Amino acid sequence: MVEDIQPDSSNFVAEYTTVQSIFVRNRNCLLLRADFSPLFVGYYLHLMQHALHPPQEKTEVFKQLLAFFTLYLVSRPWKEHHAWTINVKPPQKVNYFVVGSSHTQDVVGRIFTDNVRETDMTMLYAQNICRERETHTSVIPLSSDSPAAWVEEFFRVSEQHPARAFAGHGDFFYLITAEPDADYDWLNELTIDRVEQIEQEEQTKLLETRDFTYRCGCSAERIIPVVRAMTKDFADMLSEQGALEASCPRCGVSYTITREMVKGSGNTQDIC
């Protein structure tokens, strides 16, 4: 149940998670870090508001993936939109989906446990979407089982340069990427304890910060055009039953779509 996994937000103040981008001098590496407590609170509030109940053990994996994905966004240009789908091999039978952009300053995602395609290997499907060029899609087989290792494999295969990913104390997460002429020995030998002391032990420079919230922006109004474009069988079903449930593919929120709404006369004010 969602009530069993919600965090203690009694001292919660921030409305967004701020990701710091820090250059590590002499090592030629980029450190990305953030306290994800605000973003995780937003995720749990989303679950409670819409009565969504993903399995707790899968929620913990999803949170880690969401954090590392957000850090990855900050390593990329502002104008890009990215989406990752992790299709986990049996016996898990689960898909983790995350999507977001620095341009919109939000991330969102969901956990799929029904009708999940079974594969021999865990696969990562990554999309890089930018209006100025054609969408780029990467398909990467993953040999590991943890979100941190997934991200490191993604960097090695798709980004073609190494990176290290760490979950720290509390809700702090870290991503360290190699830049040209990086000190690869130093990068490979990092531990979470050393990562948390980088600013004390190394020369660093804060390059920028980016703020993120957990937000989808979906609404019944945005889903209606999709319903209108459905097949005749779907239209006949809607006409016969009077209303149907349609869920957002990004965040999993369900909307009741009525005949009146499709015709343009119904209430479509609900927004996620």
Question: How are the secondary structure elements laid out?
Answer:
Layout: E1 17-24, E2 29-35, H1 37-49, H2 56-74, E3 81-88, E4 94-101, E5 106-112, E6 122-130, E7 133-142, H3 147-159, E8 163-167, E9 172-178, H4 184-188, H5 192-195, H6 198-201, E10 204-214, H7 220-228, H8 232-241, E11 243-247, E12 254-258, H9 259-263
Parallel strand pairs: 5-10
Antiparallel strand pairs: 1-2, 1-10, 2-9, 3-4, 3-6, 4-5, 6-7, 8-9, 11-12
Oligomer: single chain
Question: Pairing-aware structural class of the strands and helices?
Answer: alpha+beta
- Which CATH-level-2 architecture of the largest domain? 3-Layer(bab) Sandwich
Number of strands: 12
Radius of gyration: 20 Å
Instruction: Tally the structural domains.
Output: 2
CATH topology of the largest domain: Hsp33 domain
Round the mean pLDDT to the nearest integer and report it.
88
Residues in helices, as a percent range? 25-40%
Instruction: Provide the succession of SSEs.
Output: EEHHEEEEEHEEHHHEHHEEH
Side-by-side strand order of the widest sheet: 7-6-3-4-5-10-1-2-9-8
What global shape is seen? elongated
Please outline the major beta sheet: 10 strands, mixed
CATH superfamily of the largest domain: Hsp33 domain
Class of the largest domain in CATH? Alpha Beta
As residue ranges, the low-confidence spans are 1-13
Q: Terminal Cα separation, in Å?
A: 21 Å
